[in-house]
Amino acid sequence: QVQLVDAGGGLVQAGGSLRLSCAASGRTFSTYASMAWFRQAPGKEREFVARIRWSTSNTYYADSVKGRFTISRDNAKNTVYLQMNSLKPEDTAVYYCAADPGTGYLSWGQGTQVTVSS
User: How confident is the model at residue 75 (pLDDT cuts 50, 70, 90)?
Assistant: First the structure.
Protein backbone atom coordinates (compact mmCIF):
# COMPACT_ATOMS: atom_id res chain seq x y z
CA GLN A 1 0.00 0.00 0.00
CA VAL A 2 1.28 3.46 -0.84
CA GLN A 3 1.11 6.44 1.47
CA LEU A 4 0.21 9.69 -0.26
CA VAL A 5 0.92 13.19 1.02
CA ASP A 6 -0.87 16.10 -0.64
CA ALA A 7 0.55 19.61 -0.45
CA GLY A 8 0.49 22.98 -2.16
CA GLY A 9 -2.96 24.30 -1.38
CA GLY A 10 -3.61 27.82 -0.21
CA LEU A 11 -5.55 31.03 -0.70
CA VAL A 12 -5.36 32.68 -4.11
CA GLN A 13 -7.30 35.36 -5.94
CA ALA A 14 -9.44 34.49 -8.94
CA GLY A 15 -7.27 34.24 -12.03
CA GLY A 16 -4.28 33.08 -10.03
CA SER A 17 -2.38 29.81 -10.05
CA LEU A 18 -1.38 27.08 -7.65
CA ARG A 19 0.55 23.84 -8.03
CA LEU A 20 -0.44 20.88 -5.93
CA SER A 21 1.88 17.96 -5.31
CA CYS A 22 1.29 14.39 -4.23
CA ALA A 23 4.31 12.54 -2.92
CA ALA A 24 4.29 8.80 -2.44
CA SER A 25 6.12 6.52 -0.06
CA GLY A 26 5.94 2.80 0.48
CA ARG A 27 5.40 1.90 -3.17
CA THR A 28 6.41 3.60 -6.39
CA PHE A 29 3.78 5.15 -8.64
CA SER A 30 5.05 3.11 -11.57
CA THR A 31 3.40 0.03 -10.07
CA TYR A 32 0.00 1.75 -10.26
CA ALA A 33 -2.25 1.95 -13.29
CA SER A 34 -3.30 5.54 -12.72
CA MET A 35 -2.93 8.50 -10.42
CA ALA A 36 -5.67 11.06 -10.10
CA TRP A 37 -6.83 14.22 -8.39
CA PHE A 38 -10.31 14.62 -6.93
CA ARG A 39 -11.87 17.50 -5.06
CA GLN A 40 -14.67 18.04 -2.62
CA ALA A 41 -16.35 21.38 -2.03
CA PRO A 42 -18.38 22.07 1.12
CA GLY A 43 -21.76 20.36 0.96
CA LYS A 44 -20.93 18.59 -2.31
CA GLU A 45 -19.88 15.12 -3.37
CA ARG A 46 -16.25 14.36 -4.13
CA GLU A 47 -15.65 14.79 -7.86
CA PHE A 48 -13.04 13.73 -10.37
CA VAL A 49 -10.61 16.42 -11.55
CA ALA A 50 -7.79 14.80 -13.52
CA ARG A 51 -6.05 11.49 -14.13
CA ILE A 52 -2.78 10.27 -15.60
CA ARG A 53 -2.20 6.72 -16.79
CA TRP A 54 1.24 5.56 -15.78
CA SER A 55 1.99 3.29 -18.74
CA THR A 56 1.04 5.75 -21.48
CA SER A 57 1.14 9.15 -19.75
CA ASN A 58 -2.31 9.79 -21.21
CA THR A 59 -4.19 12.41 -19.28
CA TYR A 60 -7.89 12.97 -18.70
CA TYR A 61 -9.71 15.97 -17.27
CA ALA A 62 -13.11 16.96 -16.02
CA ASP A 63 -14.78 19.37 -18.42
CA SER A 64 -14.84 22.03 -15.72
CA VAL A 65 -11.02 22.19 -15.55
CA LYS A 66 -10.01 21.28 -19.11
CA GLY A 67 -7.63 23.86 -20.53
CA ARG A 68 -6.86 25.32 -17.10
CA PHE A 69 -5.43 22.41 -15.11
CA THR A 70 -2.55 20.11 -16.02
CA ILE A 71 -1.66 16.83 -14.33
CA SER A 72 1.93 15.65 -14.58
CA ARG A 73 4.39 13.33 -12.89
CA ASP A 74 8.02 13.15 -11.87
CA ASN A 75 9.14 9.54 -11.79
CA ALA A 76 12.42 10.30 -10.03
CA LYS A 77 10.62 12.08 -7.19
CA ASN A 78 7.68 9.66 -7.14
CA THR A 79 5.44 12.71 -7.22
CA VAL A 80 2.36 13.75 -9.15
CA TYR A 81 1.47 17.40 -9.69
CA LEU A 82 -1.63 19.37 -10.52
CA GLN A 83 -0.89 22.77 -12.05
CA MET A 84 -3.97 24.93 -11.70
CA ASN A 85 -4.19 28.16 -13.71
CA SER A 86 -6.95 30.71 -14.19
CA LEU A 87 -8.49 29.66 -10.92
CA LYS A 88 -12.13 30.47 -10.25
CA PRO A 89 -14.05 30.74 -6.97
CA GLU A 90 -15.89 27.54 -7.92
CA ASP A 91 -12.56 25.69 -7.81
CA THR A 92 -12.56 26.15 -4.03
CA ALA A 93 -12.42 22.70 -2.45
CA VAL A 94 -10.27 20.21 -0.64
CA TYR A 95 -8.14 18.46 -3.24
CA TYR A 96 -7.12 14.82 -2.85
CA CYS A 97 -4.74 12.68 -4.83
CA ALA A 98 -5.50 9.00 -5.25
CA ALA A 99 -3.72 5.91 -6.55
CA ASP A 100 -5.39 3.18 -8.60
CA PRO A 101 -3.59 -0.17 -8.87
CA GLY A 102 -6.09 -1.20 -11.54
CA THR A 103 -8.93 -2.15 -9.23
CA GLY A 104 -10.07 1.29 -8.12
CA TYR A 105 -8.74 4.20 -6.09
CA LEU A 106 -7.64 2.44 -2.93
CA SER A 107 -5.10 4.91 -1.57
CA TRP A 108 -5.86 8.56 -0.84
CA GLY A 109 -3.93 11.55 0.35
CA GLN A 110 -5.06 13.55 3.36
CA GLY A 111 -6.24 16.45 1.21
CA THR A 112 -5.08 20.02 0.75
CA GLN A 113 -7.38 23.06 0.91
CA VAL A 114 -7.61 25.36 -2.10
CA THR A 115 -9.53 28.61 -1.61
CA VAL A 116 -10.09 31.01 -4.49
CA SER A 117 -11.35 34.46 -3.59
CA SER A 118 -13.36 36.60 -6.00
Answer: confident
